[in-house]
């Protein structure tokens, strides 16, 4: 169905893909994995013709889909064969209402009205969207928007579905819904699905095969998922735990790991419990919220929220899409004016403080990191951050190199990968070392290595007396760094306590190691290694 025949891609003088030689069969769910910037998105775009027809650059070798050479067929001539959904599904919407969006692709292909009507109804039922047919697209949650984006390409009856980071913006439950839908399409309809994903713990157990991009000009490795995972440098916690415990075969799912974990649970039952990290030194309140209410027009986003943030804390805000996590962060940095209640960061009301002053007290990295980037090159962006924050020259570039090493200074920030843009925006904010650091989905687009570097930076900030508040759906990051977890639902705080207590009691927010080894009080592979030693 999809064949790469010694394909390569070069953008300017930089090789992005080298010697790609693989064939993905019909009805296969294939996972594309690799570190940030190794060419995953480029490989996906080569399948639907966006590479090289719209990106520029030089494509060598051949890429064929259902027998069509993508060099000779631009995306419009592949639209009936390949459906593509990018990292931001909302960016691809062209209509205002769900039903109209589902029909748009068929209108572009000139299908008959009766065929369009039938396919829209079939897709609404298949994806569980029937109750949303008349909903404005702007009112959808992240999971709903992702399903609509998938539905909008499914109505054209493609043979191949290509997805770039389909769960990166979704809460754990929403991600499970989307992936269950994809698995049903593969099993029941014989659809070929090619997807790139950094959060391997969500999808690796569903994938029939895997393409691992090692980067550095080396060709990819392709084969059955289990075989690739044995040596893969990027691996989810369940696989790393299996390696530590010496389990054979290596488990890919929590279910398989639990079956093998009984002896390990017995050993951990007699080991001393891990000592939870706690803020050291004298603690002081950096921010406080009392009775906070935030509204978007008549729609309430936050209701009666009380929260106190102290130096040395790492607080994770968790909850489903649309719960109000981002609104709370925006209120803390002054981007939203409270409709009721009180917000204080230091001695100031954020919404009454000029942004140039506020950024030295509280810095926010938003979900779309590109909102903070405006210079023409990476070097210029870092130099501007040093200048604006009155930091020593090279401070921002050093932070960026720590998160995303090896990026060319001459690149435009918009040409970076999603994870690299996030790393640059984070470096810009951290250059000023504000006492309160706010991160909105900080691991979106980051591979495991970059997440480890981010975790180190977060721990260093907390140890230095800063407070970090991060809104995230990444339960594994929360298990690694958060000293406290706050769960938000429908604009209200429904849980607030030590991370180990909050996440272990929640099936949705428990990390993989916690699920596998419960009731042992361990959340990460490193905690298991420490307990066994």
UniProtKB/TrEMBL annotation:
Any Pfam family matching the protein: ABC_tran
Keywords: ATP-binding, Nucleotide-binding, Transport
GO terms for MF: ATP binding
Ranges that cross the membrane: none
SUPFAM superfamilies to which the protein is assigned, alphabetical: P-loop containing nucleoside triphosphate hydrolases (SSF52540)
Annotated ranges, domain ABC transporter: 2-241, 287-515
InterPro entries in the record: AAA+_ATPase, ABC_transporter-like_ATP-bd, ABC_transporter-like_CS, ABC_transpr_CbiO/EcfA_su, ECF_ABC_transporter_ATP-bd, P-loop_NTPase
Alphabetical list of PANTHER family matching this protein: ENERGY-COUPLING FACTOR TRANSPORTER ATP-BINDING PROTEIN ECFA1, HEAVY METAL TRANSPORTER
Family statement: Belongs to the ABC transporter superfamily.
Protein name, UniProt field: ATP-binding cassette domain-containing protein
Organism for this UniProt entry: Actinoallomurus spadix
């Amino acid at each position: 169905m999809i064949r790469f025949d010694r394909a390569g891609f070069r953008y300017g003088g930089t090789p992005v893909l080298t010697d790609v030689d693989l064939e993905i069969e019909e009805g296969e769910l294939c996972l594309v994995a690799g570190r940030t910037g190794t060419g995953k998105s480029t490989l996906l775009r080569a399948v639907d013709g966006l590479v090289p027809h719209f990106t520029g650059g030089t494509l060598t070798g051949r890429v064929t889909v259902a027998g069509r050479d993508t060099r000779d067929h631009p995306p419009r001539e592949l639209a009936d064969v390949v459906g593509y959904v990018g990292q931001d599904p909302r960016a691809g919407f062209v209509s205002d209402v769900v039903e109209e969006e589902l029909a748009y692709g068929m209108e572009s292909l000139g299908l008959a009205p009766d065929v369009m009507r039938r396919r829209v109804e079939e897709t609404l039922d298949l994806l569980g969207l029937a109750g949303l047919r008349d909903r404005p697209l702007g009112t959808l949650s992240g999971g709903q928007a992702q399903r609509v984006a998938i539905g909008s390409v499914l109505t054209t009856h493609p043979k191949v579905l290509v997805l770039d980071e389909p769960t990166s913006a979704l809460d754990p439950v929403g991600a499970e819904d989307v992936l269950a839908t994809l698995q049903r399409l593969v099993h029941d309809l014989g659809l070929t699905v090619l997807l790139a994903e950094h959060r391997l713990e969500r999808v690796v157990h569903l994938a029939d095969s895997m393409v691992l991009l090692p980067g550095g000009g080396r060709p990819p490795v392709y084969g059955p998922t289990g075989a690739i995972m044995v040596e893969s440098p990027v691996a989810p916690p369940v696989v790393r735990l299996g390696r530590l415990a010496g389990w054979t075969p290596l488990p890919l799912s929590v279910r398989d790991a639990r079956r093998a974990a009984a002896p390990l649970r017995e050993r951990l039952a007699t080991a001393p419990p891990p000592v939870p990290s706690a803020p050291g030194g004298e603690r002081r309140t950096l921010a406080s919220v009392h009775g906070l209410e935030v509204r978007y027009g008549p729609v309430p986003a936050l209701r009666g929220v009380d929260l106190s943030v102290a130096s040395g804390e790492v607080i994770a805000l968790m909850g489903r899409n649309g719960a109000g996590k981002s609104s709370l962060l925006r209120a803390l940095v002054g981007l939203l004016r409270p409709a009721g209640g009180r917000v204080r960061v230091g001695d100031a009301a954020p919404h009454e403080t000029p942004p140039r002053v506020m950024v030295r007290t509280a810095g926010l990295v938003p979900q779309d990191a590109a909102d903070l980037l405006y210079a023409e090159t990476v070097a210029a962006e870092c130099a501007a951050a040093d200048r604006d924050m009155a930091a020593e020259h090279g401070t921002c570039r050093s932070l960026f190199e720590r998160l995303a090493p090896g990026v060319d200074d001459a690149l435009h920030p918009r040409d970076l990968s999603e994870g690299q843009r996030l790393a640059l925006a984070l470096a810009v904010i951290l250059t000023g070392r504000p006492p309160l650091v706010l991160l909105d989905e900080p691991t979106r687009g980051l591979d495991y290595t970059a997440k480890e570097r981010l975790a180190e930076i977060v721990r260093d900030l907390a140890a230095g007396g800063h407070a970090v508040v991060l809104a995230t759906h990444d339960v594994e990051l929360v298990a690694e760094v958060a000293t406290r977890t706050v769960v938000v639902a429908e604009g209200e705080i429904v849980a607030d306590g030590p991370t180990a207590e909050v996440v272990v009691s929640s099936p949705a927010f428990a990390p993989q190691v916690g699920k596998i080894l419960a009731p042992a009080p361990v959340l990460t592979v490193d905690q298991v290694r420490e307990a066994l030693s």
